[in-house]
């Protein structure tokens, strides 16, 4: 059944791309693709079997731009973020590894959506990507960044890179910390079969760089660390009961 879910995801993804691809030559269709991305995330999360719980959306203003910063467990994280923020009709962009832009068709759509390519491990290139991101998060658009840089290998939080906080300081945009749990079980890092079950995303209170000052990264990281410990304990119990 889990392999059938994987096939279902591929089929749905192909259908979304097949519908959207003909519009690429016709001007700026970025907003259209972001609209599609929200529904794409919602549908793929359902197919993957993720029964998502979302909390904290009431703290967000759909008309504002934010920098969303949180932990990274699985590729399913993107689905749950898109599906959650689509409820507020928010325009959300991601920073993606540059090599993903070389994938035929996917790369074209990613560029059309205004997604930001980033090269890990090259500080100068990473800084340039941040500067490009500053141009992107305007007109009600928000940016999602996983400061760990990659998915967790053992379920624990990894050290946060500072680029995301530098971007917040440069733009003055509020940071919305978020915590994701359960997606590592739904879509494991090195295991193709999908496992239906609970997952959760918690959006925390926005943090203003101007109000926090030099302690910005420490404050946000502490908020995420404390919430992650709480959410992970609850999620581990849910999956233990399920087993």
What attributes does this structure have?
single chain; 243 residues; alpha/beta; Glycerol-3-phosphate (1)-acyltransferase; 7-stranded mixed β-sheet; 47% helix; 16% strand; globular
Describe the structure.
The longest helix has 27 residues, at 216-242. The chain has one domain: Glycerol-3-phosphate (1)-acyltransferase (3-Layer(aba) Sandwich), CATH 3.40.1130.10. α1 (2-20) runs antiparallel to α2 (30-48) and α5 (123-136) runs parallel beside α6. It is built from nine helices and seven strands; from the N terminus they run ααββαβαβαβαβαβαα. The model has no long low-confidence stretch (mean pLDDT 79). The protein has a seven-stranded mixed β-sheet, with helices on both faces. β3, α4 and β4 (116-118) form a beta-alpha-beta unit. The two termini are 17 Å apart. The protein has helices at 2-20, 30-48, 76-85, 106-113, 123-136, 163-171, 183-186, 209-212, 216-242; strands at residues 50-55, 67-70, 91-97, 116-118, 141-145, 175-181, 197-203. The protein is of the alpha/beta class and 243 residues long. 47% of the residues lie in helices and 16% in strands.
Assigned CATH architecture: 3-Layer(aba) Sandwich
The CATH topology name reads Glycerol-3-phosphate (1)-acyltransferase
Largest sheet: 7 strands, mixed
Helix content: 40-55%
The 3D shape can be described as globular
**Strand elements, count:** 7
Rg (CA only): 17 Å
Low-pLDDT segments: none
- Count of all domains: 1
SSE topology string: HHEEHEHEHEHEHEHH
CATH superfamily assignment?
Glycerol-3-phosphate (1)-acyltransferase
CATH class: Alpha Beta
Q: Helix count?
A: 9
**Straight-line N-to-C gap:** 17 Å
Structural class: alpha/beta
């Amino acid at each position: 059944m889990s392999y059938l879910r994987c096939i279902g995801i591929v089929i749905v993804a192909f259908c979304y791309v097949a519908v959207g691809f003909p519009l690429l030559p016709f001007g700026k269709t970025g907003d259209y693709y972001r609209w599609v991305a929200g529904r794409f995330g919602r549908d793929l999360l359902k197919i993957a079997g993720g029964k998502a719980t979302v909390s904290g959306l009431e703290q967000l203003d759909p008309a504002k731009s934010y920098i969303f910063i949180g932990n990274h467990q699985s590729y399913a994280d993107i689905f749950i973020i898109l599906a959650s923020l689509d409820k507020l009709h928010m325009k959300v962009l991601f920073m993606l590894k540059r090599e993903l832009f070389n994938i035929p068709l996917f790369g074209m759509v990613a560029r059309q959506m205004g997604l930001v390519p980033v090269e890990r491990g090259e500080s100068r290139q990473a800084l340039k990507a941040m500067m490009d991101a500053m141009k992107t998060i305007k007109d009600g658009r928000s940016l999602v960044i996983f400061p760990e840089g990659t998915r967790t290998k053992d379920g624990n939080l990894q050290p946060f890179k500072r680029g995301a906080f530098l971007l917040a300081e440069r733009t003055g945009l509020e940071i919305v910390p978020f915590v994701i749990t359960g997606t590592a079980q739904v879509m494991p890092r090195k295991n193709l079969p999908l496992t239906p079950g609970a997952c959760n995303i918690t959006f925390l209170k926005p943090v203003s760089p101007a109000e926090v000052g030099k302690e910005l990264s420490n404050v946000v990281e502490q908020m995420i660390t404390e919430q992650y410990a709480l959410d992970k304990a609850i999620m581990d119990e849910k999956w233990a009961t399920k087993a």
